[in-house]
Amino acid sequence: MAVSQIGIGGLEYDPRKRSLPPELGVLAALIIIIVVFEVLNRLNGGSFLFNMRESVPALFNQQRLDIMLLQVAITGIIALGVTQVIILGGIDLSSGSVVGATAMITMSFAQTGLVNGNPNPSAILGPWAMDLPVIVPILVGLACGVFAGLINGFFIAYTKIPPFIATLGMMVSARGVARWWSNGQPVSFPTETYASLANGDLLGTITFGLFRWPGQNPAVIFLLLAVLMFLVMRYTLYGKRSYAIGSNEAAARMSGINVARHKLLVYAMAGLFTAIAAILLTSKNLTAQAGMGVMYELDAIAMAVIGGVSLAGGRGSVVGTVLGAMIFSVILSGFTSIRLDAYYQDMVKGAIIVGAVVFDQWRQRRRAMGA
């Protein structure tokens, strides 16, 4: 018989009711989407991820893989921070605008003094802020992100403003700061060292030249941060407290967790990840513009939700978010490969996001009913 009795009171355990990790379902969806786009491309005489050229001894289309990783890396880093916030039971609508503000301020401290032998035409702060050591703009950028996160966390934790309203206010304010900083003008011409942050070869450096992947630093940093946050959320008090608060805030408070302080910390961490994304974005593009980061917050939330992170809080994982980011990237690249117009892409993206939320609600109802 499949049912056995264990524990006090004759509790029944039925192995047939064991639920598989939700990440497996996300992985299956990723594989199915890849297969669908591969078939559609083959019907049109092309290929998606697999190489069809006999002259190239490679299984995969390396160029498309590189583009897909770069597409998802910047927003994926933001999604790692957003994942922590959603698990906590909150939401962050400000990350895209914080990217814009952080990008403008950071690039102002990363500018070179001379461009082709002439003074930098887009200098913002004057000679004292030109050609600074690369650590200066990095620290300035990280401080901007953490500061924005602390403001979000303070209002949410200590004034009890709903996260939606608090982060919506930050979204509007940060975008205003981005436009005000240089009167809407781009800030360009960073130092060579700053430009190498995103365009260098970090993977080759940390593997002592064994693997070389020039220009893919954002993707490498995204994967490294994902591994780090997986360990943090799974094995540290920070992660356990985040899940506890997201599952039942009242119970977490009664168990001795300082809920307000932890919320402040989580939103500061989300701001830190947003700042990292802004630094890599400006380094990759060699410029900062006030409009940077528009809709990034929604893409980051979508990656987390598609990856199985519950908007109700208390459930989800970094692994799921990474898989959700990969699905997001595959969908965008797949639409481009079959030449689907951009507005259709947005429609399908919206449908996928709504579908993921509907599925999450259905899964919660089943869990509540004990199915």
UniProtKB/TrEMBL annotation:
One cellular-component annotation, GO: plasma membrane
InterPro entries: ABC_transp_permease
Subcellular location: Cell membrane
Segments passing through the bilayer: 24-44, 65-87, 93-114, 134-158, 164-182, 219-237, 264-282, 294-311, 318-336, 342-359
Major location (coarse): membrane
Lipid bilayer topology: Multi-pass membrane protein
Gene Ontology MF terms in the entry: transmembrane transporter activity
Pfam families the record matches: BPD_transp_2
Keywords on record: Cell inner membrane, Cell membrane, Membrane, Transmembrane, Transmembrane helix, Transport
Function: Part of the ABC transporter complex LsrABCD involved in autoinducer 2 (AI-2) import. Probably responsible for the translocation of the substrate across the membrane.
Oligomeric and partner information: The complex is composed of two ATP-binding proteins (LsrA), two transmembrane proteins (LsrC and LsrD) and a solute-binding protein (LsrB).
Record-linked PANTHER family: ABC TRANSPORTER PERMEASE PROTEIN YPHD-RELATED-RELATED, AUTOINDUCER 2 IMPORT SYSTEM PERMEASE PROTEIN LSRD
Protein name according to UniProt: Autoinducer 2 import system permease protein LsrD
